[in-house]
Amino acid sequence: MINFKIFKYANPAKFLNLCDKIFIYLLVSMIAFLFFGLYQGFFNSPEDYQQGNLVRIMYVHVPSAWMALMIYSSIAVASCIYLINKHLLANIFCKSASLIGASFTLIALVTGSIWGKPTWGTWWVWDARITSMLILFFLYLGHMTIFNFSENTTKSGQAAALLAILGFINIPIIKFSVDWWNTLHQPASVIKLSGPSIHSSMLIPLLITALGFFLYFLVVLIIRMRSEITNEKINNLSFTE
Amino acid sequence: MINNLFYVVSASSFTLLIMFLLIVFSLSSLKKREKIFNKISKNRKNE
Fold first, then answer.
1. What percent of chain A has pLDDT over 90?
2. In contact, A57 and A115? CB cutoff 8 Å
3. pLDDT one-digit tens code per residue, A165-190
4. Would the ipTM clear 0.85, i.e. be above it?
5. Which residues of chain B are within 8 Å of residue A60 when distances are taken between CB atoms?
6. A114 touches chain B (CB under 8 A)
7. Would the CB atoms of B33 and A231 count as touching at under 8 Å?
8. Which domain holds residue B6?
9. How many CB atoms lie within 10 A of CB B46?
10. CB distance B14–A110 less than 8 Å?
11. pLDDT at B23
């Protein structure tokens, strides 16, 4: 058994207590960062010398794609914790985060497609990056389907955890697809070893928006986890009747 | 120029719409479950 200090919050009551304390701060910061980041990105940041105003799609497309990858990675880690330590909260996290991750993946795919039409001349291309993102979307759908397939949370949780861990192989493929294959999608310009290659006037609004998206994830995650914990309580009450 | 703006507005509107729907859907699901839980707890207390 692996034991970390953070596991004391694996108790749903303690976790909900912590969430109650931080929720309002997360909500206020989320609104502030999203509003400020998007305002800066859409109205104050400069146009691109080649794409003009089209570059502003970046401020919703890139943070969504980052969130899609980050959420799936966190689901894979929580799945390992669930399989090893059998913490119910890890399973509830996976179940709650899946729909949020799927939504961000859908946003990344659709906004990418909207960006692709005027820049590449096509809505869709079977490019390595785009195809691997589509696979990620299907992995999220599969993960959610497994959870909804069975009423038994333990069994469905174990099957979903296995899928999440196996599907994690897709994450480095998405990240490095633009380096490994000759793709239409541009290579990384922010998260790379040599440092960001975009100007700070664009990078700062992008990072602020990304932080806003992350806070949004935390806010929705808390709501969904609270909902799942309530559902578990209902199931327990129904069983004892 | 106007054409480019159409793509930017479409992409950002779609993003904000999905984010809004997700938060509304999650909140309504929470409220519904809390209502059921309170109802069951109340019934059990009365028994």
1. 62
2. yes
3. 999 999 999 998 888 888 778 777 77
4. yes
5. 11-12, 15
6. yes
7. yes
8. 1-47
9. 6
10. yes
11. 96
